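User: Structure tokens for both sequences below?

Assistant:
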Amino acid sequence: MLIGIDLGGTKIEGIALSDEGEELIRVRVPTPAGDYPATLQTIKSLVDDIESELGQTGLVGIGTPGAISPATGLLKNSNSVCMNGKPVFEDISRLLQREVRIANDANCFALSEATDGAAAGAEVVFGVIAGTGTGAGIVVRGHVLTGPNAIAGEWGHNPLPWTRDDERPGAACYCGKSGCIETWLSGPGMSRDYLESGGQAIEAKQIVALAVSGDEGAAACLESYADRMARSLAHVINILDPDAIVLGGGMSNIDRLYTRVPELWGQYVFSDRVDTKLLPPEHGDSSGVRGAAWLWND
């Protein structure tokens, strides 16, 4: 039995899969806000509850924002800041009294969709999470690409490519820079862009609904978003040339992106044609937790 834990900013989700990928149980609980010890205890309680319910002991994989630093063994780059600088791998292994596997949550998403999701069978997969933040993971021939710095796929903290004059310098990002892809392609990024263009202070899904209903300002905002995503993904295609790009996170629910972005990215990709596929996730917002379980097959 494989157990996956997805550590999110507002919820922690646990899942158990059979060795064949059949979902056996799923549990979601709130994330203790800003409390590292309580977060660890919540993870342990989830694992204990899953194993008690199923009467089996499982192999545990955990997806977390950020990554374990190869240099220090401590978590870095997490937007759940209470986790940064902590020996997460050691603490969870000790608490569960077993070996665990831990990976960045975007890596888990990419692994899930490459294993038995929308990009199953693809040789190179770039898995994007665009929601509250923006990140990505890379899977090559069924294995997560981590890199010597444990930052492979940290696409959201590169600058927006082919930046226009009216896009400079861009909004401040929590990483300390300005104009990062994350500040444009996250849900809050779309909301900010709409507000600064004369619209209301509303969430991204409301902007999309307005665009679909014919609101010109919202439609213009959505078109700008699609172009920025096309530019950002074209950069990835020019470097990685993946077979498939799978979108995840709340922004992956925007149906128009799957037609409009491929229509736009050709002008930015250094090729006579673009055969990379842009795909919605097969497992939706549960994909990351499945990928955490699949870390034991990576």
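Moving on to the next sequence.
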Amino acid sequence: MPVVGFMSARSPEDSAHLVAAFRRGLGDSGFIEGQNVAIEFRWAHGQYDRLPALADELVRRQVNVLVAVGGEPSPLAAKRATSTIPIVFGVGSDPVSIGLVESFSRPGGNVTGVTLMTALMEPKRLGLLRELVPGALLVGVLLNPVFSPAARQLQELEQAARTLGQRLVVTKASTDEELNAAFAVLVQERIGALLVAADPYFDTRRDRIIAVAAQHRLPAIYQFREYAVAGGLLSYGISITDGYRQYGVYAASILNGAKPADLPVQQVVKFELVINMKTAKALNVTISDNLLSLADEVIE
């Protein structure tokens, strides 16, 4: 029975629906876990420094394909661990610029996958947040400095802020202690709104971040629909479940004999704006008619 190694920077608690989507992608090609394929799971729980050891474990296990997802740190660790085992990645930025593949159409080597482009959407999220709270003198930004796209995220946010004439308070966190300190700074600075940058570590702390935003009555925007469903005010990004289903489709293609070099990198291009009206009422935030008209989903 072939074995798929599944390595994520996220945690199983916040990824159950994503794993289900991945299994659907495998199932579309006839691969059913426990019947004709086995899956070995490894989770970093938002601690990126654990990923190299997890990748080494799966390489020693001699898996038939290594699916490395949950953001850039996971496939980068996988690529360093093996140049022979096929790798299917999931990232939120440009895989060419970070050295995963040679090009979208011809990935080359043993690596291919899907980009969700979510880490490139920070300026768009800032614009939506400005429309939501036009009177906010200060907008807080929560950023993970050890996340590979962080430097680009910050650069693009600062450029967008200058264009909009918006002042930012940027805080950085990659551990729970730093997250507590970042929240303390944001509250002390009396920010009027919060932008949580795209980052898998923040995904693993989703409920906590939403709770703090609610406690301090902060209108906030996030990257995935899951945040809005969990009580976040606004989310703007791709359908992450579509991405995970595609990871399964590509893993199945490789199990059927396809070579990663022959599978072009896919892009998830459908973006969705989700508004939680219950949270808006709790925060006493008025959602403009324009934002409502742009919304793909409104949670009452």
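User: Anything stand out in the second?

Assistant: Residues 119-237+272-299 form a domain with the Rossmann fold fold (CATH 3.40.50.2300).
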